[in-house]
Amino acid sequence: MAKKRPQTKAKQPQLKDGEIPVVGAREPCPCGSGRRYKACHGRVAAHAVTELVQRPFEGLPSEGDWVALRELVPAATVELKLKEGLPEGVPSVTLATVLPMAWPALRRDDGSVLIGLQNDTASGDISRDLADTLQRALTAQPGTPIQGRRAPAGGPRLQELLDPEGAFEPVVHSGFEFWVPDAEHSTPEVAASLERANAAAIPTVKLSGVDAAYWCETPDKNHLRWVMPYPEEQLLDALARLHAAGRSSLGEGTRLVGSFRAHGLTVPVWDLPTGVTADDVEKPAAEFAERLATALASDAPLTPDERRARGGLTNRQVTLS
Prior knowledge:
The protein has 321 residues and is an alpha+beta fold. It has eight helices and twelve strands. Strands 5-3-4-2-1-6 form a six-stranded mixed beta sheet, with helices on one face. Strands 7-8-9-11-10-12 form a six-stranded mixed beta sheet. The radius of gyration is 24 Å and the shape is globular.
């Protein structure tokens, strides 16, 4: 029998790390190493997918509002400004808290783009996943919803795509009629979906006198949830100083009850009597902001009462993300 000649494989051109696309785990790595993707550059991609970015919206205008719209606000929209301007055929780009069918994004028939913020993401970096969704939506055919996927490792983040000087001004809605241009003439299926979504939406109002503070109404009591940009330890110390001094409320019948952690920021929460509206807390919130600024500036050691107040606030802290 004739001997089999050893087969040789032609060497593929070596690619730089930034040029290597994402492929299936068992496919040959596009870098040309001859190994499977999962054993080569897939390791780096897998690490990028699982690595959690603690503050994904850091560096964007109004970071606190990004966090609030992601975690706290049912229905809101914001017009986004792109660093390079809008592409031809795209009249606008709008961030929305949530879209129909939980779509990550939608390119409408008129070419405009809607991006959903309250979606599960495939990696630990929400900013990179949203940027990937935005880029795909900008080039999609009009009338096309954008499906979720794992963003390529090393892809751009929102901080690289959005205009850093662009205003971020959320508009809070009472319902989800912004999903469709003409809700009154929508199909029965869309009308039913809107009715279900609207029924589940908690009435929410953004305060105008302070940043990233949102009033909401629930059956038992109302609340104020205020996303604050200060370092957590410093903020908890300041809140404890005010709480121990009896100066942490927003008026009669209101009470600071604890806080959330969300995307690297702390969100103090106040319980409000049912009759207290968003307008009612505008002035007290502005006055509290002044008291808080003074407390934040103090570097004196906490007193025993302040330490007990801090312990109570810490014990009632909940992590959302």
